[in-house]
């Protein structure tokens, strides 16, 4: 499982997984900037009203118009074959799955994009279509035991209940004891959720697995993507099940990595976004500008609003800091919040708030980059050393550079 987002295992709140992001302020990196045209602040003439945060819009998949490619399908297949590692399992199968994903998503056939996809797959799963997870039975039993303890149920009673035969013909206990891969784990929890009443255990049996497949794709992202973009393959079961196949996991992984217009000249920021969320690198650069303008230390995680369960709640530190600039920006809190809600979209970079904030830093005689590395610690019981989003992005970038050298 990846260090970015190993499938989290939760029985009603007990989390066991890999690399759950945990943010903390760190020194900002030194970066260069692209200048912008200064905008004269407009005097604030109306009182600042109290506002309520509404959910932000879900990013919509779009065909990426650049970089351009004029390769035919056969030429693209030959180029991809040249770029893939010399030693890897089922080279022809991976070539087909990646190329099919690019074609269906209307992405250009370029060495840069092919290598971006290949580097991410290699980092996340080492070219395993169904990644194995060492010690998976222990992880699952630990989660079940903690949940049983919370409900004051002896673990032996839970284990006895799980001796019942599952839909595969094997007992649930035997399936847990022999778990090896993410897909097996997902199927186990799907069956547990379906048979919760039959097992008669007062535990939350809802499937807690949130990511999976060779690119560790969010199930929630995949479920949203198929509503906005036609899924190209015959679906066997649910979207969730497709994520755990090599073909489906590659398709959705390529989509979240490349099927959006990113304002970066360095591919490393796409890899950072893949780990931290779309436009996180752009948003961190914005947070750095706000921090400089206000003198306030901010958490440089790329989230301009505060989120709980994927929905903006309360008021974030960045939001508070930007509100403090409302007079200099010539914008009300309503107008500021309106633009902050676009933080997960390309449109934020064209918003009044974004342009005026960068104009303020330029007016003060400073310049600043439009992208910076999110500073997020990756937390997991499986991680014994400090790993970060920056570490992840740089590792994938190294693999990307190695891939590009094979051209």
Mean pLDDT: 82
Strand fraction? 5-15%
Please provide the ordered H/E string of secondary-structure elements: EEEHHHHHHHHEEHHHHHEEHHHHEEH
Biggest sheet strand order reads 3-8-9
The residue fraction in helices comes out at: 40-55%
Distance between the termini: 29 Å
Low-confidence stretches: 1-60, 62-66
What is the helix tally?
18
Structural class: mainly alpha
Pfam families: DUF1615
Organism: Deefgea tanakiae
Region (Disordered): 48-70
Protein name: DUF1615 family protein
Secondary structure topology:
Elements: E1 9-10, E2 15-16, E3 20-23, H1 73-83, H2 91-105, H3 111-125, H4 136-150, H5 155-161, H6 172-177, H7 182-194, H8 196-199, E4 211-212, E5 217-218, H9 219-228, H10 239-243, H11 246-258, H12 268-276, H13 280-294, E6 307-308, E7 311-312, H14 317-323, H15 326-329, H16 333-340, H17 352-363, E8 376-379, E9 387-388, H18 389-404
Antiparallel strand pairs: 1-2, 3-8, 4-5, 6-7, 8-9
Protein name: DUF1615 family protein
Pfam families: DUF1615
Region (Disordered): 48-70
Describe, in plain words, how this protein is organized in 3D:
This protein is mainly α and 407 residues long. The protein is built from 18 helices and nine strands. A three-stranded antiparallel β-sheet has the order 3-8-9. The chain has a two-stranded antiparallel ribbon with strand order 1-2. Strands 4-5 form a two-stranded antiparallel ribbon. Strand 6 and strand 7 form a beta hairpin. Helix 1 crosses helix 2. The radius of gyration is 23 Å and the shape is globular. The N terminus is likely disordered.
